Batch of 2 targets.
Target 1
Amino acid sequence: MPAEPILRVAIPAPLRHALDYLPPAGVGAGAIGPGMRVVVPLGPRRLVGVITEVIARSELAPGKLRRALALPDAAPLVPPDLLALCTFAARYYHAPLGEVVVNTLPVELRTVERAPRRVARCWQATTESFGLGEAALARAPKQAAALAFLQRQGPADDAACRAAGIDGATLRALEHKGLAMAAPAGHAATPAVPAPAASAAAPALNAGQQAALAALEQACGAFHCALLEGVTGSGKTEVYLRFIERVLARGRQALVLVPEIGLTPQTRQRFEARFGHGIAVLHSGLGDRERLDTWRRCADGRARVLIGTRSALFSPLPELGAIIVDEEHDASFKQQEGFRYSARDLAVVRARQLGVPVVLGSATPSTESLANCASGRFLHLRLHERAGAARPPAVRLLDVRGQALEGGMCGDTIARIGAELAAGNQALVFLNRRGWAPVLSCTDCGWMGECRHCDARMTLHRAERLLWCHHCDARSPVPSACPHCRSARLVALGTGTERTEHTLQRLFPAFPIRRIDRGTMQARDAMEQLIGQLERGEPCILVGTQMLAKGHHFPHVTLVAIIDLDGGLFSADFRAAERTGQLLVQVAGRAGRAERPGEVLVQTFHPGHPWLTRLVDGGYEAFIEPILVERRQQGLPPYAHLAILRAESREQQPALALLQELKQELLHEHRTVQIIGPVPAPMQRRAGFHRLQLLLSHAQRTPLHAALDAACGLLETRRAPGVERWHIDVDPQEGA
Ligand code: ADP
Ligand code: ZN
Ligand code: ZN
């Protein structure tokens, strides 16, 4: 008798090695395969894992292998290409494979209790059924009706069939005759229905757009990566739409990744108007049921275009033919906790694995992508003008030294806002700080409201009457007297969006003021409603944080005032310049999108700062070039590879000791890797933990990853009393 196969199972636990199990009792080798879910015991628990491999021999002694409990599905839920992507990602980011793989499944399919015993099946007409003569099913009217339904509808799951009055026996009869086939929902083959034809009229492309589209199409059938650079409003989205049109016409699916809060109702409507009902969206605002539904529609091919944020990259798309990453520079593509991956970088990996093109688009490309263009790895496509009639905004620096500020605004800014309102226009005021004021302080003794758990001040939120830590979410009531000296002279220092809004209300009582930040935009359709109001074009003022800087069209805004950019100018983070430049250009891009030219005011205490003057005089390109030169000289990304190894403990000592020890051991074997630290993380204490880190860097990836592998090995086996947790961040976007 041949030995039983062994299942290598990825389970959602922080384990860096896979676990081996015997198949569930009574399940034969023919019924199991990679990508299928399996319920396994782990200690006293039962978990849903995913089979990553079926192997002949385990390193565990046969007697030690436990038996899996159940195989819930008849077919794999994680298709081979996603499994390959997850395997790459887990290795590259030094993340536990189980967490990576299982997270590709909707929550509803991840737990034993909630996982349906059998996944719903998806029925579809077979290719053969289309050639069937009319008389063939004349004596089986129910089957004829059911087949007509499937041919018309494309794949339909059990529920949809029932809703159409089709029972299981009819479907099985069709299956028996080879006229219909069933797969677990999520695994239908190519749908019989063609993709919906483009419906909305598309504008004629300008010369730049045509050239970009032609370049993209040339390499349409194979892997290649293009960077599409063009200012906001230059018509990048129009190029994506045309490119996707071609992809769909070849019977393939397309994936469009957008920043966390960049998926606007307008974007969605624009895609729907062009492509009809084959659009699916995936973002953090969806409930579990909606996610499951979207996942199914992607997997069975009903969705032809998926637009989604970061995690949408891991959706099953059996006919994926192209990936687009819009606003590729955006920091939200990098997950900052748990599995710290970059969806942009993995999009390139997924495209390469599948042999399909990927397009990264931005008005302000990241240094990484620009370096990839310079080295010839990416194709650099540029749109130089604004599409249609729009003209670029004029940017002006306002020197605010020695001026009294009201709600963070100088007299000039206020006057310009007033003038625009009087002319019937809309104005936008940008500052990247929520709340009323960043600090509450005592004028008698100098006390400042600090967070007990973090090295940070608490932000005053006046409406909620709270001091609120934006780093750990701790809140406390606003004290009526100084907790230190009992003085009643407490003052709010600095300005947040709430305070600016209040000032504007006082100055311009006749006009509506709309605040846009995480506090006001929590309701699901808050942004949708707001945009509806703005599109009517009545004069008003928008006040907001960087939520304003992403993707939204504000066609009636003619004035943008950026009132606090200075914070970014003096940050210790080597990415500060890049980020500041991107933010300024992105916020500025909100103005003058329609036929009205826009104006951008930038208030600053440092009008001579080289970053600002370069941006204002030469635009993003002139700004970013010297930054790339500096990075190269300093051996920083994108010309070197970085990783952070961070440990956290309640007291400082245990994390420090662990990292010191680790550094010594790593230096021994991995001499060429530069290791800095242990040093405190940028905010050493956060949410009650001391956070210390080693910074590893190397000009090449391979030696760096060898050192990280070694570090993982050491950390997993080491007992380090007092160290609560550790993690590795590869290609960190912050904290280095
Ligand atoms: P981006 O994605 O670069 O911000 P969009 O594709 O959204 O630019 O284009 C900005 C605006 O210009 C949109 O309203 C779009 O419909 C319009 N537009 C784009 N291309 C053209 C074109 N070739 N002719 C006329 N209008 C265009
Ligand atoms: Zn005091
Ligand atoms: Zn805190």
Target 2
Amino acid sequence: MAHCATLIPGDGIGQEVTRAAQRVLDASGVRIEWETADAGGEHISRYGTPLPQQTIDAVMRNRVALKGPIGTPIGTGFRSVNVELRKSLDLFANYRPARSLEGVPTRYENVDLMVIRENSEGLYSGLEHIVVPGVIESQRIITEKASQRILRYAFETARRHGRRKVTAVHKANILKLSDGLFLEVARRVAREYPGVEYEESIVDATAMRLVLDPSAFDVLVMENLFGDIISDLTSGLIGGLGLAPSANIGDQYAVFEAVHGSAPDIAGRGIANPTALILSGALMLDHLGESAAARRVERAVRAVIAQGAIVTRDLGGSASTEEFTEAVIAALESNHE
Ligand code: NAI
């Protein structure tokens, strides 16, 4: 049976990396019927909005989407399409695994972390206003309901993947009420999972401890902005943004995208590393119940990178996006289970 999935190419390097990921998934042996949908600033003149309702409807119809990055103007202009899409589809959890890849020179080997970022509130509630000229207030919303579902998701993920520990990352020493609530919920949920160790770590100390010894952590769960920053740090630990996949998960829908943005500095040159989006595609296959194919895709990507002859510039090579993609497809085809 074929699966249906929405493909949102996005902008910047989006077209290049989504095309690569689509080709690899199509070569995985899983049949996917793709429905392409528009989103991003370049579509405003056509739809009057960077996130057309048709695109949201397409994800709702197919339930899953593979999405390229979409740029957001800084300081002014339209609100982030990425944030709006997560809100419209109630994609409350952002799952960002960071696992070392053989052949990528980094400070640490065997990094294996899962960052779980609350995706629906915190400082991304978009509630900002001018109190008086020269004074701006931004509201950081933390609710018991959203905290509970992200913490449950974190513990469930830990249990499903056989992980040993969940760390709740917070700033409750300063944000006593909001992060105090987050921790209170965390402790309550932790009691429901006696088989998983639970610890708490202040966000600034977490950043330092991750850099000194990533093996001190396993699954880390936190509110939106902390998750945004800490997951870029963990991406750095495994070799950079070009390698880090992610999944935005809700009760009904899921959108899979790289951690990186639209990389306007290298867009249109055919040199972007599609690894992060291909690995996001593998997460999508897993979500669709195609876990054997997901493993094959991940193994093929890892084999090509470990071999080192055909890798993109960010990894010290000279291969184009397309050459790397061809190499992954060749590895996939010679490696059926
Ligand atoms: P970025 O992730 O696009 O780029 C940061 C650096 O990493 C750049 O030097 C870029 O060339 C490099 N890089 C990123 N992805 C790469 C890849 N696949 N291969 C090789 N090198 C790669 O972050 P930046 O520059 O802060 O943001 C650019 C735009 O992307 C902004 O408009 C931002 O709002 C948007 N963005 C969108 C996201 C999404 O769609 N989910 C996530 C993050 C940012």
